From TrEMBL, chain A:
InterPro entries: ABC3_permease_C (IPR003838), MacB_PCD (IPR025857), Macrolide_Exporter_MacB (IPR050250). It holds the Pfam family FtsX. GO terms for molecular function: transmembrane transporter activity. It is found in: Cell membrane. GO terms for cellular component: plasma membrane. Residues 272-393, 733-848 form the ABC3 transporter permease C-terminal domain. It comes from the Bacteria. It is a multi-pass membrane protein. This is ABC-type transport system permease. The chain crosses the membrane at residues 12-36, 269-293, 313-344, 364-386, 412-431, 451-477, 498-519, 726-754, 775-802, 822-841.
């Protein structure tokens, strides 16, 4: 039996390779994701080699201390006191130790504008006093020695044009300009830890004077010769219990892992799409094997006639599938390596901070790829293999292949199963949509309901694919005459086969359209929120919020002097403890209160119209708002001992950008006498053109390089842009699933062409031209593609709508249907399906009539 | 057809399936082509019907020479001027009997002559079966549908390839009787390939082939006469006295 199977494999190599193609793509996607992950990890480990160079012990503030520190106003609490360095040096076994300071420092270019990365200012690092423990190398000039000297990283020097000897302008924490002399250029080598950032190296004194450094972000130590770094770490821990000391090796690992964490989410998302691709491959393989079994019915029956047992036939089909899966797995690994490396390089091209590295191939992706390839293929071939065992030996003696009409009992069973599954799915969906609980659970319920209902659609699809094809075939039948009518009849001939073929496409297109509806709705919602929450034209913020400097108060004053600008609202933020819970509290000056309250805040109880002294507006999203009523009193205290009791004036729903509680302006001023503005909102005066209002705003902000001006129009276009790229990314990822589905259409059609050789020859003899025969197949593919796409689209539309509706409860989200885009998907599916049929159609048309008729 | 030669393969492996065969099938005549297996009778029919190309020689239907025609022209010719009846019926399983019958006309973009359609349907006795799919019909019924399909466009000639090969003797006799009637009463031209002397006896004329050459021509054949002729063919070269 094994010999027969192997002979069969040899004889059908080409056809089985076509089957394997589907699994190659699925497996390749998974392997590629894993290889990408491994490569990026290896690259990250290498990258941090320099930062951790010579470091045997790294001392930082423990995470708990950082969490306890207030967010704004007192950054010094997040740093190690200067005394730490001396304490570390005193630990026996420490040969060298140095403190590293790390602060943000706005640097201006030669035109007086901020040198930044996405509007964020650059950073300043302390030069270090121990050369061996410096994280950089000096490539030109020297290390700064006095408070008026600085060094600059090579990349920034190159693109700003600064050279050794030039004068640099930097802003201190009060945004006062200072000049320093550039004395050196430094390089961080292969490490891209600071890539894209402007890095200024200053002496420790200059760090304190210019960047406001009051402590170290890190203290590093080198062990004395012969001293084990793990042992030394324990000694440091014992000597300095209040800090967090980690061994150098561990430090390097931690740095790399932190960087990878973010990327892990990316690979997780990729894996989800890879699994979808594999599910689609499973459909394609199931279908291909099913067709192969039907076509080889006579061979199978003959084997049964000469004494093969059912078990042997089953084993033979399964063995064949394992071979296909193995081949798919091996080819998939190759594709995966290419894909993984391509992804890595592609991401590196977009994100400069990604280091370069050779592709890393660990055993894990190889084992996973082979396993997935074999398991998915064999599992998909299970049902066809069982079907093979049901072939009666007598079938070998019959001339015509057995009719494949499904008996009535099966039909009833199918309907019953579909109805049951659909009932469960619908119940889940309805429960999810009606639930008043949190949006996440509701969304999960709706998505789960959607998946179950999709299963119902798949079960039922053999029942409705036929009529749907007939209905869709009507128009081409009118337009293209007989070939189109023949195509529609062919597509209907085997509903199970057509259903399985289109199912793969349904999954891809369904997910794609659901994602598109959801993402487009997010965009509309975001735009709506922008319009209602910010009925403004410009928003001014500090691009260096870490220093707590905010927007200097004179900015608002100067803006108010400009006649082009109507309302200028100052918003301030602070952190308070309210009845024992820490939260952000905001306040807006009286002139701008109408901008913030009013239509933008859906009032749950009370009134926001008058926020007087001693009253507070609470957002329902505040951790403390549960159980509070209008008229209740809450106790509020700041970090430095100020506080008071406030009466709840109103409860409002929705999200807030400016804290979850609002105080009156005068109360806020009492609590935070030294506070500066966090945000300044500007609305142009009526009748002023956007150009002149922008010029008015910029005439003020030009004197404050650190302040970033967001114009709402720009913001909106930014949101739209990121939404568009998100849709593009999702479409590209699901595109692989669609490509696999198209391979399925190609497989089904080539097998059908093979099956209908005689029939095609006969109609050719009756007067169908080659072109018409080709058209018949192309139209059949078109119908399959359009049926799959339409079912997928309808389903995606329904669940995209249902999901986003519950996802944004309380946001009054307007579900948006991007009709043009969805029609685009339909058109792409149709065109691609026709493209998939080109090869089979050519083969069918090329066959000579006489030889085709002779084949049985 | 004139000096027809059909060679399969090249060089040493070349097989001369037809060797300078010249034969004319009369219009309004029922001709049977007979011969042992491998005599080239099917090849002759395929070439005559424009399904296969010839190596040399010419084929004409009426006054139209079809050798050298493009595939497109040949297709059009088959659509309009040639009808086929096959051994294994060859109906499209996806179409009903009526749709199968109308298929060639639809391909040609022509409408069926209502009266002629009714005549053909009634003569063949398949009116009650028109909405059935081929799988629901018996072999004899399927072959009668195939005959109707061949007749409906009123082709210049109908080629029948072993039309009774897959039928029981009673259904076979019905089909043969019908083919004969269509020639006698409707003036149709029919060329039939068969190896059954009984079937050949329905024809007006039998053309005998052996080893790719014309080997005999019997007008008004009977089953016994055909059998004799065939027997003579399979004997070693006949020695004639006199």
């Amino acid at each position: 039996m094994l010999k027969t199977t192997l002979a069969g494999l040899r004889a059908h190599t080409l056809r089985l390779l076509a089957t394997a193609l589907a699994i190659v793509l699925g497996v390749g996607f998974i392997a590629g994701t894993l290889i990408f992950n491994d490569t990026i990890k290896a690259a990250m480990y290498d990258e941090y080699a320099r930062t951790a160079r010579n470091v045997d012990v790294s001392i930082t503030l423990p995470d708990s201390a950082q969490a306890r520190a207030p967010q704004a106003g007192s950054p010094q609490a997040m740093e190690l006191p200067l005394s730490t360095l001396d304490n570390v040096r005193r630990v026996p076994g420490v040969a060298l130790a140095d403190g590293r300071m790390h602060e943000t420092l706005p640097l201006l270019n030669k035109k007086g504008k901020l040198v930044g990365n996405d509007g964020k200012p650059g950073i300043a690092l302390s030069a270090g006093t121990v050369p061996a423990l410096r994280p950089y190398d000096v490539t030109k000039g020297r290390v700064p020695a006095g408070v008026t000297e600085a060094a600059l990283d090579a990349d920034t020097a190159a693109h700003t044009g600064y050279a050794v000897g030039d004068t640099l302008t930097v802003l201190d924490t009060k945004q006062v300009r200072h000049t320093v002399t550039l004395v050196g250029i430094v390089s961080f080598g292969d490490s891209k830890q600071y890539a894209g950032e402007a890095v200024v190296i200053l002496t420790q004194d200059a760090m304190a004077r210019l960047a406001g450094a009051t402590g170290y972000s890190q203290v590093v130590a080198k062990a004395a010769p012969g001293q084990d770094q793990w042992l030394l770490t324990r000694k440091v821990r014992a000597a300095l219990p209040e800090v967090r000391a980690v061994a150098g090796a561990q430090y390097r690992d931690n740095l790399a892992n932190d960087a990878i964490n973010q990327l892990s989410q990316f690979t997780e998302v990729l894996l989800i799409f890879a699994i979808i691709a594999c599910v689609v491959s499973a459909f394609v393989i199931y279908n291909t094997f099913n067709i192969l079994i039907v076509q080889r019915m006579r061979d199978m029956a003959l084997l049964r006639c000469v004494g093969a047992s059912r078990g042997q036939l089953f084993g033979s089909v399964l063995l064949e599938s394992v071979a296909v899966g193995l081949a798919g797995g091996v080819l998939g690994i190759g594709l995966g390596a290419l894909l993984g490396y391509g992804l890595f390089r592609g991401l590196g091209a977009v994100d400069e901070s990604l280091p370069s590295h050779a592709v890393v191939l660990t055993p894990t992706p190889i084992v996973v790829a082979l396993l997935v390839g074999v398991v998915v293929t064999a599992a998909s071939a299970l049902i066809p293999a069982v079907r093979a065992t049901r072939v009666p030996p007598l079938a070998a003696l019959q001339v015509a292949p057995l009719a494949t009409a499904s008996p009535g009992r099966r039909r009833v069973l199918r309907i019953a199963a579909a109805v049951l599954v659909a009932a469960a799915g619908t119940a889940l969906t309805v429960a999810g949509s009606r639930t008043s609980g949190d949006a996440q659970t509701a969304t999960l319920a709706v998505v789960a309901g959607g998946l179950v209902n999709f299963l119902a659609v798949l079960i039922a699809s053999p029942l409705f694919v036929g009529p749907l094809t007939a209905a869709l075939g009507w128009l081409p039948g009118r337009l293209f005459g007989t070939p189109a009518r023949l195509a529609a009849a062919n597509a209907r001939r085997n509903p199970g086969r057509t259903a399985a073929t289109t199912a793969a496409l349904m999954i891809g297109v369904g997910l794609m359209s659901a994602a598109t509806v959801a993402i487009t709705t997010v965009r509309t919602t975001a735009n709506d929120q922008l319009n209602t929450h910010y009925p403004i034209d410009y928003m001014l913020r500090s691009s260096d919020p870490d220093h707590g400097s905010g927007v200097p108060t004179e900015v608002a004053r100067r803006l108010r002097d400009r006649p082009e600008l109507g309302t200028v609202a100052e918003i301030r933020l602070g952190q308070v403890t309210l009845d024992g819970t820490r939260l952000d509290v905001g306040s807006v000056d009286p002139s701008g209160q109408a901008l913030l309250t009013g239509a933008a805040m859906p009032v749950v109880a009370g009134s926001t119209a008058h926020l007087g002294r001693g009253s507070i507006i609470l957002f329902t999203s505040a951790p403390d708002a549960k159980g509070k009523k209008v008229g209740d009193t809450v106790t509020l205290s700041t970090g430095d001992g100020r506080g008071g009791r406030f009466t709840v004036a109103a409860l409002v729903s929705g999200e807030s950008q400016f804290g979850v509680a609002l105080l009156a302006w005068s109360d806020f001023a009492t609590l935070y006498p030294a506070s500066t503005d966090d945000t300044v909102l500007v609305k142009a005066a009526p009748g002023v053109s956007p150009a002149s209002s922008q010029a008015a705003v910029e005439s003020v902000t030009d004197d404050y390089p650190v302040i970033s001006v967001a114009s709402l129009a720009e913001w909106r276009s930014e949101i739209n842009q990121s939404v568009d790229s998100l849709i593009a990314a999702v479409a590209a990822l699901l595109g692989i699933a669609v490509v696999i589905a198209l391979i399925g259409i190609m497989n089904t059609l080539s097998l059908s062409v093979f099956e209908r050789t005689r029939e095609s020859a006969m109609i050719r003899a009756l007067g169908l031209t080659r072109g018409q025969l080709r058209a018949t197949l192309l139209i059949e593919a078109l119908l399959m593609g359009v049926v799959g796409a339409i079912v997928g689209l309808s389903f995606g539309l329904l669940y995209g709508w249902a999901t986003t509706r519950v996802m944004f409860t309380g946001f009054a989200a307007e579900v948006t249907v991007p009709v043009g885009q969805l029609l685009g998907y339909l058109a792409i599916a149709a065109v691609a399906a026709v493209a998939a049929a080109v090869l089979p159609a050519r083969r069918a048309a090329r066959a000579s009539i006489v030889s085709a008729m002779a084949e049985t | 057809m004139n000096e027809l030669v059909k060679v399969y393969g090249t060089g040493d492996t070349a097989v001369r399936a037809l060797d300078r065969v010249s034969v004319t099938f009369g219009a309004g005549e029922f001709t049977a082509i007979m011969g042992p297996s491998g005599s080239g009778k099917s090849t002759l029919m395929h070439c005559a019907a424009g399904l296969d190309t010839v190596s040399s020689g010419t084929v004409a239907i009426g006054s139209t020479q079809i050798t050298g025609m493009s595939d497109k022209a040949l297709t059009r010719l088959r659509r309009e001027r040639v009808g086929f009846v096959f051994q294994s019926f060859n109906l499209l399983p996806t179409l009903t009997a009526a749709q199968n019958i109308r298929l060639p006309l639809e391909l040609a973009g022509r409408r069926a002559d209502r009266q002629w359609y009714d005549t053909v349907i009634d003569v063949l006795g398949i009116r009650s079966r028109l909405e059935h799919f081929p799988a629901q019909l018996s072999g004899g019924q399927q072959q009668r549908v195939a005959c109707a399909r061949a007749l409906l466009p009123r082709p210049d000639v109908i080629f029948a390839d072993e039309p009774t090969g897959n039928l029981d003797s009673r259904s076979g006799a019905e089909v043969l009787g019908f083919l004969r009637d269509s020639v006698r009463e409707l003036g149709q031209t029919v060329v039939m390939v068969t190896h059954d002397p009984n079937a050949a006896s329905y024809a007006d004329r039998v053309v005998l082939l052996a080893d790719g050459r014309l080997a005999g021509d019997l007008p008004d054949p009977t089953a016994d006469g055909v059998l004799d002729a065939l027997r003579r063919l399979s004997e070693p070269a006949p020695t004639r006295r006199g």
